[in-house]
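To whoever is on call:

I kicked off a structure prediction for a single chain this morning and the downstream step that reads the tokens threw a length-mismatch warning. I double-checked the sequence; it's 271 residues and nothing unusual in it as far as I can see. Pasting both halves so you can look.
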Amino acid sequence: MKFPKTILRSIYTSFIRKEIGTKCAYQHHSPIKIGHRGAAGYSPENTFASFHKALLLGVDYLELDVQMTKDSELVVIHDATVNRTTNGKGKVRDFTLKEIQTLDAGSWFDPKFCGEKVPSFCEVLDEFAGKVGILLEIKNPNLYPGIEEKIADELIKRDLTHHEGPQVIVQSFDQQCLKRFHQLIPSIQIGVLLKKITGKGISTKELLSFSSYVSFVNPKITMVNQRLISKIHQHGFKTFIWTVRRRNEVNLLKHLRVEGIISDYPDFLKD
């Protein structure tokens, strides 16, 4: 069957316009740029060096991890032990703040970072809060009874619970911890972290269970596909994806129109 040239031209023109529109929408979508533990691809994670590097690379948010010492001081460190990221050995909860800050938290990454220390949460807030958003992960809350109240007190003390200027967002894998924190400061947005076997998504039941206290559903990048992101958005949630370490992953996530991208290499996220 032959189509008149005018019809074929019309179909072709319509197709081109659609493609251009899709491409433009993709090109103009700019997810929030989030530096994973600062700029963990370039500097020792969760240190002042890493956070300052992330700011130089233009992040909108610093992602960081909070735990608690033996003397109930909040510190910024990812693992439950100091073994991997300092020259010490032992559990974070077995050190006092003074003791943990005598450790070298930089040389493991590169000798030029010798002397970097494990920062306290208060030090990080005093240096960066108000200048850049803070995406705060509460790590291992089962090890630190009362950590939610301690974090809430520090945020309230610094008037960081409002929606004006750079904001604080709190996330965790522990949903009971997030519920407790939400009760303490309902105005701060909450993100639930998810990590599952590749290809296994999120059930409708799970998403509905988040609805009373969660604003962000934040899956690991190995879970991500169009269906998952659409489902998260259809239930009214926003999403930050972690952890991006390849440039081609950034292009995919922009195409999927996620709200934010968490990366060890914040310069990959520039428009």
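Update from on-call: the warning came from a stale cache, not from the record. Cleared it. Sanity check on the structure: Residues 5-28 form the longest helix (24 residues).
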